[in-house]
Structure to design on (347 residues):
């Protein structure tokens, strides 16, 4: 084989560049850019009057032409805006669905909490890795109660589609009364979806008293407040009662850690009626803890903000369910970061 033929069949090694490292280094900027756009109503303005020139966006949002122009172009770089041949800005499908405040699917509220609540604690990550202790524990009464009171309503849209999917499967088409136990209820999203699907459903919401004020307010807004009752207290010690048809643990195990999660699942088993169902929502990771990135990153968030929290795999959680007496641990595909985990208390 001559040199020309040899070059034709060989492939040069892919050159390694620092581009991805630089993107990671500046990754903190994207949430701040999006938060500024949400706070100043930029997505709302374009939704209402778009396509718009930068000067028109500035006028409608009472922002500076220079500031809004630079922000708009950054949002193009993040693929959250587009610009036509006349230099007018338009929404993309993602921003239209999830960053316009009037949409039921709006999820932009999370960004103000990232900068005001989460990022300040993440700045202590170096020390937290060394000590294994959080800067402050948000799953403890006091700091935690105040944290979640400000937080839970803004993350309602993240869970509501999954809660509606659960209600369609468990709600029995409104044919019979159902008793639902909504543990660490927060905004009440899981119980509200059940109550909306079945007017005969009654929901017992358990959370800290300050957080339950938010639960009650959101239940009233959705027109299901009369179907709700409330138990104020710590989910690890409070008596839940008995005879429930469904118990929901919506994004709570990750803050509790292994021992308290096992105990909570066992106490939930005891609260369910025979034949009752437990439904668990979590940021699941695979069994090898190599993916998905969101679940692995969220584990670091639990390191930063809780004493024992972590993210878990379906295998781990299904093992805890079986140990507690549940049968048939299974997943339910639902809109959200991970499928729901369901299991049944044997009759």
């Amino acid at each position: 084989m001559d040199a020309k033929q040899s070059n034709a069949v060989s492939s040069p090694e892919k050159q390694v560049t620092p581009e991805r490292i630089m993107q990671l280094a500046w990754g903190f900027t994207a949430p701040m850019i999006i938060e500024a756009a949400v706070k100043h109503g930029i997505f709302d303005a374009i939704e209402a009057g778009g396509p718009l020139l930068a000067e028109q966006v500035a006028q409608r949002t009472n922002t500076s032409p220079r500031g809004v122009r630079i922000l708009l172009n950054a949002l193009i770089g993040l693929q959250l805006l587009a610009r036509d041949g006349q230099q007018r800005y338009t929404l993309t499908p993602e921003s239209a669905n999830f960053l316009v405040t009037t949409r039921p699917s709006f999820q932009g509220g999370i960004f103000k909490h990232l900068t005001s609540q989460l990022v300040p604690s993440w700045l202590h990550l170096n020390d937290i890795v060394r000590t294994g202790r959080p800067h402050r524990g948000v799953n403890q009464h006091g700091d935690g109660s105040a944290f979640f009171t400000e937080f839970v309503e803004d993350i309602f849209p993240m869970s509501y589609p999954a809660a509606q999917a659960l209600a369609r499967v468990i709600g029995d088409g409104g044919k019979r009364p159902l008793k639902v136990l909504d543990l660490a209820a927060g905004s009440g999203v899981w119980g509200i979806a059940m109550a909306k699907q079945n007017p005969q459903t009654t929901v017992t919401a358990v959370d800290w008293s300050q957080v339950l004020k938010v639960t009650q307010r959101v239940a009233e807004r959705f027109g299901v407040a009369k179907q709700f009752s409330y138990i104020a207290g710590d989910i690890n010690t409070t008596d839940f009662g008995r005879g429930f048809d469904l118990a929901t643990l919506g994004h709570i195990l990750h803050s509790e850690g292994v021992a308290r999660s096992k105990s909570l699942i066992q106490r939930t088993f005891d609260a369910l009626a025979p034949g009752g169902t437990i439904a668990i929502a979590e940021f699941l990771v695979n069994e090898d803890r190599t993916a998905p990135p969101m679940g692995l990153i969220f584990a670091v968030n639990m390191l930063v903000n809780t004493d024992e929290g972590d993210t878990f795999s379906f295998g781990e959680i299904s093992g805890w369910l079986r140990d507690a007496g549940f049968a048939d641990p299974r997943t339910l595909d639902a809109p959200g970061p991970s499928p729901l985990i369901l299991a049944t208390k044997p009759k």
